[in-house]
Records
---
Amino acid sequence: MRATQLYAPTLRETPAEAEVISHQLMLRAGMIRKAAGGVYSYLPLAWRVLRKIEDIVREEMDAKGGQELLMPIIQPAELWQETGRWDVYGDEMFRLQDRHNRNFCLGPTHEEMITALVRFDVRSYRQLPLMLYQIQNKYRDEIRPRFGLMRGREFIMKDLYSFDRDEQGLDVSYRKMYDAYTNVFSRCGLTFRAVEADSGAIGGSGSHEFMVIAESGEAAIAYCSVCDYAANVEKAELKPIQQMHETQMSLIEKETPGTKTIEEVSAFLGITADKTIKTIAYQTEKGLVLALVRGDHAVNEIKLQNKLGCLQLELASEDAINTALDCVPGYIGPVGASNVTVVADETVMLMSNAVCGANSRGKHYLHVNPGRDFKPAIITDIRLIQENDPCPHCGQAVKTARGIEAGQVFKLFTKYSKALQATYLDENGKEKPLVMGCYGIGVSRTMAAAIEQNNDEHGIIWPAAIAPYHAVVVPINVKDNVQLELSEAVYSRLQSAGIESVLDDRNERPGVKFKDADLIGYPLKITVGPKTINEQLLEVKVRKTGETTFLSLADDYITAI
Ligand code: ATP
Ligand code: MG
Ligand code: MG
Ligand code: MG
């Protein structure tokens, strides 16, 4: 590629709207342009990087037996109604209607679609296990799209779904994907950690997030350098701190009768500290009801899809679930039973969108009437794990870091297959639900994360595997024919050796070209100037280390590169 032809309109100034470095640098390097909040065009340099990440992802998915397909982005509401998620998904779902007023959404994820796809065609245990994936745009109307490609409303995701006969099979598939993800992020040249994760809104239990370590990361992780423990700090353990006595409860009732706001209830429960999540457990006649409440509203907004931002009920039995569901509408007012999904067999989760989306300032407790609806039993406190807290596995002091969630793997078990009646016949001819897992990688977010992790004051420093080009050849003066011819020769030798290169044949001052080269972040910069002509030496500078070497034109400099 010649720089005179390359469509990479670089900017000298940092656009004011860009808060994080990856967003600033992608705008400045002429890689992306904004179409609307959270919606971007990928220019040629960005598209090359994205395709490289996609290729790595494809190779690793295929290596584990994944088969690529492509499902529609437009999804009919009926599918989502079958699993109950049409109501549950909330404002994050982009919804649309066709000319006949039929409802559709733009796929934020594809569990429903893929389960409906395989339920017709997978009949027998002989067809299992099965792993299907796609790489495609996803649509989520995030409340706060920001940080460029990190939190877009249209973004590229790889999503793979596994189908197994039983939980042992799921364990195998899950392990394969965990390993594949480790390979993907290692091959992309990223420093990352797989951490135990909250299984969040998608459901299921058993989940890991792959966190690219970067200061700008929205997630906090805790890890132990002695054992292998690593977790999203929000997957904190419950630590009972206090029994709630009847008298305290009646006090709430007495002093603030009727409808309560979270502030009122918080005042009694002492929920004030920023990083504290309170769990209130209510003993109902038939089981234990556990409600998570978070005092920190700002975090609520960010974590809408997260356990922390929502109300969770953990129940002992099916009876208890029913009891709780009966209680729910009176308990949180605007949320109805249709907003409840069964996450795992013993857990019911109220989706955060319904709870906080409508009341994003934390008024979960509208119309709460604990005396009437529930009898309080225990209060427990979850404190987020902090630096130097004892490791839950080995007791050594944990460390903390910030991370960008670039991927996540989930065990879904039979949540979707049961809801959508996706079954198979086992060896004995018995009908069983498919046991599922789902596995996502944010391809466009991974590109941004790579920049967050690899940059300096001059620009991007691409890991070689995902760099848009490996090298740039810069003739100091293109008006000097000898320099230009030599540059052409070097460029064509690089190209034929498979080193993807750009020849900066623009009639610009060398300073301008060097600045652009650093900004765009080519791993190698090869300068052709008077020294090259006079001493027959090519100057090769490594972007990452700043190290400069001079290679003799007489030698096999391509191999040396
Ligand atoms: P987050 O916690 O950041 O909102 P998520 O947990 O909702 O992400 P998943 O449903 O696990 O996301 O989707 C799989 C992957 O898709 C994520 O790990 C992330 O890399 C990517 N992703 C999710 N939301 C976005 C977004 N708005 N913009 C870009 N990438 C995203
Ligand atoms: Mg999300
Ligand atoms: Mg997440
Ligand atoms: Mg996730």
---
Amino acid sequence: MPPLPPVPRFLRRLLTVLAAALLLLLLPAAAREASSASAEITVRVLLPAPFHDATTRELPQFHRDHPGVNLELVRGPLDTDAIQDLAIGSLLLGDTPFDIMMMDVSWMPLFTAAGWLSPLEPYLGAGMLAAMEPGARPGNSFDGHLWRMPYSGDTGLLFWRTDLMPLPPRTTDELVRISRDLQRSGRVRWGYLWQGRQYEGLSCVMLEVIHAFGGRWWNPASGRTELDRPSALQAARWLEDLVKEGITPPSVAGFAENEALQQFAAGEAAFLRNWPYAWKVIENGGGPVVGHVGVAPVVVAPGQEAGGTLGTWGFSLLRGSAHPREAAEAIRWLTGPEMQRSLALNEGYAPTWTALYEDEALQKGAPLLAVQRQALAAGPLLRPPTPLYAQLSDVMQRQANAMITGQSDAVSAMSAAQARSDALIRAMTGTPR
Ligand code: GLC
């Protein structure tokens, strides 16, 4: 197992993390989702709050199908950074109370390099991903092993107002032009809302926009970032200008997914960047835009290829599990077609199984399926697949957020992000010299 790199961000947050993990260990059994008093084996899963709630609805079926196994879902925090800290804290404590962890795709390189996971193919067999959409497969297998089964095939999408325009924009230029026209004529207050807070969601936006201008965050061949290249600078400048020109409100610097969604749902803007679940939340929310929201792939600069950030979550088996066979079966069930059908219908999550995209009954109940499939087919974008990702993302978030708030500008922010990423990679790996 390669040694775990030193992680300053984790050190800074270690106390919080350990305290939270201890709290989890001490959770009274009654507060958990225990369900079968006669169960012989308990399989415990840590998952973020929204997925916990959605999965819990289906739990009685699991217990009917798996007598003798008690699947216990432990509700973690909502946001990926917070739950990653909690997950790592519990693993660093040694004897983790969990058998299964729900994993954001961006955590996979670190968790596999750290040796915290067990490969799944000995339990589930080879070829588990073969019946999934090709775009939903990346981020699950490394070094010839399957480390995670995906629960969703979510990618970043563009939400647009069908009452304000006949068709969605395809390019960054069109989005700006439509926004300006609508704002000038007073039909809408803001053009485009996205995630600008200093957190992981901003890294997802940056990955998408850098790609949209023909650049890339990470070069796998050199093992370095490419943030000071002209295309990355153009991308950063586009976001900076959106804010400077008032197409995006300055308050975007504090927006995570939910804040952006709520403003859009309140009818404040023409466009929103978010994940697929946003559509259901807006449609169920009863606000002024209900029935007027279309969904399209994210915009790209003229002549560039489409691509949204891959934002999938999935389940991994922890190496310390005392019941790996039962846990792997639980993962099969948690990620199976029946679960994903329910998630598509009730939550609006994008499925991974090809058969679900071709199911006519499901297409009627989940109208986003076609665009979700199109976005997956466009080759969704993976965040830099390195165990150093959390630190690289931290650098990106700080610099991009400083630019959005006007403390920095596009060129300084991206040059600093490149220099700091280089320094980090050099400190951890000895290259580049
Ligand atoms: C969503 C995505 C996840 C991403 C996060 C950022 O949860 O599924 O991949 O890291 O948003 O906020």
